[in-house]
Amino acid sequence: MFLRRLKLSHTRCFLPAYFLNKNEHDVEGTEVLEVKKVGGWQGVLNTFSPDEDGNPTPDVRAILSTICYSSLMGGVYGSISYSKRAYEDFFHKNQSTLFQNQFEAKAKLQSQVTLAMARGVFKWGTRVALFCGCFSTIVTAVNAYTQNVTIFSYALGGFIVGGIARISFGVKGFVVGSTLGTILGFIVGGFTLLILRFSPLTMDEIKEWQNQSQVERDLYFIKEQKTSRIFKYDNTPELKAHEKRLQQPETISD
């Protein structure tokens, strides 16, 4: 009895949006209009140029987000790896060292681990950020030139970045790095296209959503800065009165 009364419209929330893009409540002509895209070098220039308000484009914001998140992940990995190595090296090198007390040993151990952690954060954070930033920049530029998201752009980005990363080892290093980078690009590109294939959103819509969320966060912070109690101490009545006295013209008494 319950199954007979259950309508298909009540069960659509449990089905992927890929299979049900429209319903009976959609009105013709209200869908998002397709924006005419410009390819070639003009498309690349438009992608990396700011808008009329001076704000970066969604593609540039996506690249900056990639750099920030990749540097964070690289820094975490580097700090854990280098601190663990420094901890083990300290006990290995100071087995026969005599310290005055345990506090001196703990202080030296803490200083070595802290310095090693800082080196790991800087080294791996910058490396991963440069690699991912260059990779995403090349992919974005190729996609803007062709006005299409293809696996070729990811493979080309991996080829260039992988070869540059290992060019210091000579020709063999360049070949090995380019090969591994191309394979990595194929994997990342295939995984990305697979997600887009079963998603109702396009890559441009995803980047626009990220850009809009960033703009909303900035506007929310500006609003909170004006109304929140946390920032009210930056504009106290005493400070307002002092600034008002400074703005008043000085009167010269005869």
Topology as a string of helices (H) and strands (E): HHHHHHHH
Q: Let me know the largest β-sheet.
A: none
Structural class label: mainly alpha
Q: Into which percent range does the helicity of residues fall?
A: 55-70%
Instruction: Provide mean pLDDT, rounded.
Output: 75
Instruction: Quote the beta fraction.
Output: under 5%
User: Rounded to an integer, what's the Rg over CA atoms?
Assistant: 28 Å
Low-confidence stretches: 1-21, 30-35
Distance between the termini: 100 Å
Characterization of this structure:
By secondary structure, the protein is mainly alpha-helical. It contains 8 helices and no strands. Helix 4 crosses helix 5 (151-165). The model is unreliable at 1-21 and 30-35 (pLDDT under 50).
Defining traits:
disordered N terminus; single chain; 68% helix; 254 residues; transmembrane; 3 domains; transmembrane helix; mainly alpha; TIMMDC1
